[in-house]
From TrEMBL, chain A:
Protein name per Swiss-Prot or TrEMBL: ABC transporter ATP-binding protein
Topology of the protein relative to the lipid bilayer: Peripheral membrane protein
Entry GO MF terms: ATP binding
Pfam families in alphabetical order: ABC_tran (PF00005), TOBE_2 (PF08402)
Principal location: membrane
Family stated for the protein in its record: Belongs to the ABC transporter superfamily.
SMART domains: AAA
SUPFAM superfamilies referenced in this protein's UniProt entry, alphabetically: MOP-like (SSF50331), P-loop containing nucleoside triphosphate hydrolases (SSF52540)
Domain ABC transporter residues, every copy: 4-234
Species assigned in the record: Shinella curvata
Keyword line: ATP-binding, Nucleotide-binding, Transport
Annotated localization: Cell inner membrane
Classification via InterPro entries: AAA+_ATPase (IPR003593), ABC_transporter-like_ATP-bd (IPR003439), ABC_transporter-like_CS (IPR017871), ABC_transpr_MalK-like (IPR015855), ABC_transpr_MalK/UgpC-like (IPR047641), Mo/tungstate-bd_C_term_dom (IPR008995), NA-bd_OB-fold (IPR012340), P-loop_NTPase (IPR027417)
From TrEMBL, chain B:
Official protein name in the record: Carbohydrate ABC transporter permease
Organism encoding this protein: Shinella curvata
Domain ABC transmembrane type-1 positions: 74-265
Xref: PANTHER family: ABC TRANSPORTER PERMEASE PROTEIN MG189-RELATED, ABC TRANSPORTER PERMEASE PROTEIN MG189-RELATED-RELATED
Lineage, uppermost ranks: Bacteria, Pseudomonadati, Pseudomonadota, Alphaproteobacteria, Hyphomicrobiales
Keywords: Cell membrane, Membrane, Transmembrane, Transmembrane helix, Transport
SUPFAM superfamilies xref list: MetI-like (SSF161098)
Assigned protein family: Belongs to the binding-protein-dependent transport system permease family.
Length: 333, 279
């Protein structure tokens, strides 16, 4: 229960194509994350899956049933919105129970499920309150609770954490990870946040301009990006891209290496460079360098290192952890 | 609004302007009220004077209330106003919701068409309206007035309400759709409560011209049974003699129902339950 198939799903607003043919297979119980730059169509795709927006063409199958003509409430989904979207005039309890009530579930069943969900999210104390009387984090938990109560085949999250502050975001992220383990439900989650994507996902879908760039587990995307876009998008600070001709490589257009896969030394190495700026983060030291040979690049060192702007250093990319891309930006393996 | 360093002169100038405007607005009402309680001579000799024991006289009120039919006139005015407001709000809000929520062919055109009604006074169509009412046998009924006032009020209502409805969060409506609310439930249970302040504004703007209107009652419903207060008061204004006591008393009495309605709506204006809905 809870698989999803998209087949050549397209969406245009007027003559603007927003989703340009998406094929995707989500297995039961998977945690799938959509990432991509702002405006690439993540929310639109999620709304199409939910049935809040009609696809211009293509087919959507939930659990083996074609749902293109099924209204949102009957698709067996629940959605958590970035803006919480709680009903302002209802108490927390009624907010969570409304979906079941509309579906005609018996009262004690609603009661039971609300109690269970609020226990999972430690919301018992707030059941009688209105949304206006809750903090942002509590509101988002209520919104998640409202989704859980419906016991859907498919959970849809649209940037659920982006309105929360950093500490709360970490807590809620852990909570969502725990929920996924406990409920074993299929979840589709949209986010901007790399950390959320890498930590929560079984499978990440990288979107750009309405097209899937790559689908894979977090480590696949990190270690084997399919193209320049994915290579640059996954990882922070982003991968260093160097024109291959500068390094004397003839069978590729672009050479890529992640900042954490470059070693620095004062004594000797492949590329002679000068430190331009250094950021000390405690756990990491990030060094920005300039080199005559390869241009500007970034190096990330673990732990504390005492480099200062102006220092002359040598950088050496670690072999086996470099990437090469052809003229079309596709990775060469 | 209280900026830390809002200059005192600035604030006092603003207040001065507001206070003078308030005085200018309230003064005629005040004058009507005090003169309605004076005898005829005093009204003309010292119109600005407050009623004193010597000039105090409720003869105007006796005349008006003794006339008997005035209760009916009040009732008519009240029914017409309340029914029209209710219809304007209902249909105006529904049209506004459709225009702001759904993408369909001709959406913008329909919006413009409705907005034209704000610019063209409905009185231009009086002859056609009268012919229509005669044809449908609605002359001298309150229904005729309610229909005309509803038509008159809807354009502004749609205009104001559709602007407000655009501000209601899409996520909230979508959450309702996922929870299985029908479009009607979304409209009545989610959107309407959130635009209540706007509805109150529209109600107030719609109410005053309807209550004060003389034109349509005179043309469409001048019969004794359907007279409104404004029309009813006209019997005291003669071609040669005007019973000023009665006119002023009738006008003073006419203020109160509309004042009550206003207070009801303005409470809604202030009360807001939007906070906490979305972020
Ligand atoms: N109702 C609409 N009418 C026209 N264009 C729209 C509509 N909704 C979205 N778009 C366009 O579709 C594109 C994708 O929007 P979408 O909201 O899916 O982006 P997103 O990937 O979720 O971005 P973000 O990360 O900023 O939320 C955008 O370019 C947007 O302008
Ligand atoms: Mg979005």
């Amino acid at each position: 229960m809870g698989s999803l198939q998209l087949k050549s799903v397209r969406k245009s607003f007027g003559n603007v194509d927003v989703i340009k043919g998406i094929d995707l297979d989500v297995k039961d119980g998977e945690f799938v994350i959509f990432v991509g730059p702002s405006g690439c169509g993540k929310s639109t795709l999620l709304r199409i899956i939910a049935g809040l927006e009609d696809a211009t063409s293509g087919s959507i199958t939930i659990d083996g049933t074609e749902v293109v003509t099924v209204p949102p409430a009957k698709r067996g989904i629940a959605m958590v919105f970035q803006s919480y979207a709680l009903y302002p005039h209802l108490t927390v309890k009624d907010n969570m129970g409304l979906g079941l009530k509309q579906a005609g579930a018996p009262k004690d069943e609603i009661e039971k499920r609300v109690a269970k969900a609020s226990a999972m999210l430690s919301l018992e104390k707030y059941l009688a309150r209105r949304p206006a009387e809750l903090s942002g984090g509590q509101r988002q938990r209520v919104a998640i609770g409202r989704a859980i109560v419906r016991e859907p085949k498919l959970f849809l999250f649209d940037e659920p954490l982006s309105n929360l502050d950093a500490a709360l975001r970490v807590n809620t992220r852990l909570e969502i990870a725990r929920l996924h383990r406990d409920l074993k439900a299929t979840m589709i989650y949209v986010t901007h946040d790399q950390v959320e994507a890498m930590t929560l996902a079984d499978k990440i879908v990288v979107l750009d301009a309405g097209v899937i760039q790559q689908v894979g587990s977090p480590m696949e995307l990190y270690n084997k990006p399919a193209n320049l876009f994915v290579a640059g998008f996954i990882g922070s600070p982003g991968m260093n891209f160097i024109e291959a001709s500068r390094l004397g490589i003839t069978d590729a257009k672009t050479f890529g290496v992640r900042p954490e896969h470059i070693a620095l030394s004062r004594d000797g190495g492949d590329w002679q460079a000068k430190a331009v700026h250094v950021e000390h983060l405690g756990a990491d030291t990030i060094v920005y360098l300039e080199s005559d040979k390869v241009g500007a690049f970034t190096v990330r060192l673990f732990g504390e290192h005492h480099y200062a702007p102006g220092d002359a250093v040598y950088a050496t990319p670690s072999s086996g952890q470099t990437h090469r891309f052809d003229a079309n930006g596709q990775a060469i393996r | 609004m209280s900026k830390a360093r809002a200059s005192l002169t600035r604030t006092s100038l603003v207040h001065l302007a507001l206070i003078s405007y308030a005085i200018i607005s309230v003064f005629p009402v005040f004058l009507t009220l005090i003169n309605s309680m004076k005898d005829r001579n005093a009204i003309f000799r010292n119109p600005m004077q407050l009623p004193s024991p010597k000039t105090f006289d409720l003869v105007g009120y006796y005349t008006v209330l003794g006339q008997g039919d005035f209760a009916t006139y009040f009732q008519n005015s009240f029914i017409v106003t309340v029914a029209s407001i209710a219809l304007v709000l209902l249909f105006g809000a529904m049209a506004a919701f459709a225009l702001s929520e759904y993408r369909f062919r001709g959406n913008t055109l329909m919006g413009l068409y409705l907005a034209i009604g704000i610019m063209i006074p409905i009185r231009l169509g009086t002859v056609a309206i009268l012919q229509g009412m005669v044809a449908t046998g609605l002359v001298n009924t309150l229904t005729a007035l309610v229909l005309v006032y509803t038509a008159q009020g809807i354009p502004l209502a749609v205009f104001i309400l559709s602007e407000f409805m655009r501000t209601v969060s899409d996520d909230l409506k979508n959450a309702g759709r996922i929870d299985g609310l029908s479009e009607y439930a979304i409209f009545f249970r989610l959107v309407l409560p959130l635009v209540r302040p706007a509805m109150a504004t529209v109600a107030v703007f719609t109410m005053i011209p309807i209550w004060n209107d003389l034109w349509f009652p005179l043309i469409l419903a001048p019969s004794e049974a359907t007279k409104t207060v404004t029309l009813g008061s006209q019997i005291f204004i003669g071609q040669f003699v005007t019973n000023w006591n009665a006119v002023l008393a009738a006008l003073s009495l006419a203020i109160f129902p509309v004042l009550v309605l206003y207070l009801v709506f303005s409470r809604q204006l202030i009360r807001g339950i939007t906070s906490g809905a979305v972020k």
